[in-house]
């Protein structure tokens, strides 16, 4: 299921669906779903997670923003499981509505230490009993892995990271909003970017969510604000790379610098890379020519594997991402797999690129190698 099919899925007597989204964009998805449900299904949207004290109705304000309004009829239980209570509330709810339940997937996930068979049974019961009603549930969170008994019941979709075109449109739109806000405050807000520079800035932001891009633009504008106003120019491009580098490093991904000194020997590998360099051009992509998937470099320490990886990025003229496997390994069941999938998803959004997975044997030697698909 794709995100674009979510509304039609819920409108087809499928009462529960799951949406996997990176945390920064959760509010964006809630806002989108609220607007779509109001317009296409004439259905109110409600939000609940363990962090809120009550059930909240999601509303779209006059300026297009998202507003949460507490539901007065909902009374948080002083005793008992709040999650079981909200399930009972939905089951007994007299009207129609879409209920977004955030971050409950650990209680119904495979191999999860928080797995609750009581909650799992409640979800299965709700799936069957909500079918003839106009009440729907959307499970929202990051790294959702449903229990085997729910996989064939609950449709699942993963929100991808934005493409270059989506980022370009978002940057233009967001800068326009910032410009209007500056006018209201009687501040000078100038944008001095050529079309090619807009595209370069968008490529520099590949791998970030739209919300993270908005955060970057607001932060950088604030930092560059002077008495004369703000100028958005080509200086924003290296700042975007720096901002992205800082965020990716928290995920165990480093933006590496390609080598400036060529490696010695390995003439066949150099020739193989040089011949395939044209496969990463726009012309080759327009012809749907296949691209090389990767190479495996094996050998004892000090034999030049890392230097060779950096040279590959230089020869192919592609950005270099270094994936630190050790930082992705977690102690909780499923944590390592989730971290690796999230890192690979980010690398896929930045592609074409050279993904340098150093010491890959650490990931393939233990249980993660057996479970990761």
Summarize the structure.
The protein has 373 residues and is of the alpha/beta class. The protein contains 16 helices and twelve strands. The chain has three domains: 3-158, Rossmann fold, CATH 3.40.50; 164-250, Helicase, Ruva Protein, domain 3 (Orthogonal Bundle); 255-371, Rossmann fold (3-Layer(aba) Sandwich), CATH 3.40.50.
How is the topology of this model organized?
Elements: H1 6-10, E1 16-20, H2 26-41, E2 45-48, E3 56-60, E4 66-70, H3 82-92, E5 97-102, H4 117-129, E6 135-141, H5 148-151, E7 156-158, H6 164-184, E8 189-191, H7 195-204, H8 210-223, E9 230-232, H9 236-249, E10 253-256, H10 267-276, H11 282-286, H12 305-316, E11 320-324, H13 325-328, H14 335-350, E12 354-358, H15 361-364, H16 367-371
Parallel strand pairs: 1-6, 1-7, 2-5, 5-6, 8-9, 11-12
Antiparallel strand pairs: 2-3, 3-4, 10-11
Helix pairs in contact: 3-4, 6-7, 6-8, 7-9
């Amino acid at each position: 299921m794709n995100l674009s099919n979510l509304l039609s899925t819920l409108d087809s007597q499928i009462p529960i669906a799951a949406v996997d989204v990176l945390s920064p964009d959760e509010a964006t998805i809630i806002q989108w779903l609220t607007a779509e449900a109001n317009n296409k299904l004439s259905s109110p949207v409600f939000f609940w997670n363990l962090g809120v004290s009550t059930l909240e109705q999601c509303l779209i304000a006059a300026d297009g923003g998202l507003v949460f309004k507490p539901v007065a009829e909902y009374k948080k239980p002083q005793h008992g499981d709040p999650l079981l209570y909200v399930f009972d509330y939905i089951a007994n709810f007299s009207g129609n509505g879409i209920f977004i339940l955030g971050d409950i997937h650990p209680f119904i996930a495979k191999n999860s230490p928080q797995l609750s068979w009581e909650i799992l049974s409640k979800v299965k019961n709700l799936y069957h009993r909500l079918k003839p009603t106009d009440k729907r549930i959307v499970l929202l969170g990051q790294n959702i892995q449903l229990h085997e008994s729910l996989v064939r019941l609950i449709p699942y979709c993963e929100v991808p990271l934005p493409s270059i075109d989506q980022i370009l449109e978002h940057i233009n739109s967001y800068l326009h909003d910032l410009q209007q806000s500056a006018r209201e405050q009687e501040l000078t807000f100038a944008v001095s970017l050529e079309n090619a520079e807009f595209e370069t800035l968008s490529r520099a932001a590949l791998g970030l969510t739209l919300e993270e891009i908005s955060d970057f633009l607001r932060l950088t504008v604030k930092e560059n604000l002077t008495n004369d106003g703000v100028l958005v120019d080509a200086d924003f491009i290296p700042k975007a790379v720096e901002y992205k580098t800082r965020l990716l490093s928290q995920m165990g991904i480093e933006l590496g610098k390609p080598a400036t000194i060529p490696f010695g020997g390995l003439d066949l590998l150099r020739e193989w890379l040089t011949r395939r360099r044209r496969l990463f051009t726009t012309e080759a992509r327009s012809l749907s020519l296949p691209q090389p998937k990767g190479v495996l470099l094996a050998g004892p320490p000090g034999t030049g594997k890392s230097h060779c990886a950096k040279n590959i990025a230089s020869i192919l003229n592609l950005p270099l991402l270094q994936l630190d496997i050790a930082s992705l390994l977690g102690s909780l069941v499923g944590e390592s797999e989730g971290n690796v999938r999230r890192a690979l998803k980010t690398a896929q959004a930045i592609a074409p690129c050279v993904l340098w997975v150093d010491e890959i044997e650490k990931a393939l030697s233990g249980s993660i190698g057996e479970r990761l698909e």
